[in-house]
Design goal:
The chain is an alpha+beta fold and about 60 residues long. The protein has 3 helices and 3 strands, in the order βααββα. It has one domain.
Amino acid sequence: MPDLLTPEETAQLLRLSVHTLSTWRSRGRFGGPPWVEVGGLIRYRRADLDCWLSGRTKNGATHT
């Protein structure tokens, strides 16, 4: 898989819509994944997505 992913590839990988990614970018909501602009085009780095996903891992443990 290439290191730079299009919004379509990223949406497919995350099982989200392209619209959701666009909303996250434009509104800065929900702590969406980081992106880069290359020649005016939006791209997502695979390493950034992996890091972003790791930061959202939940284990279901409860705190008392």
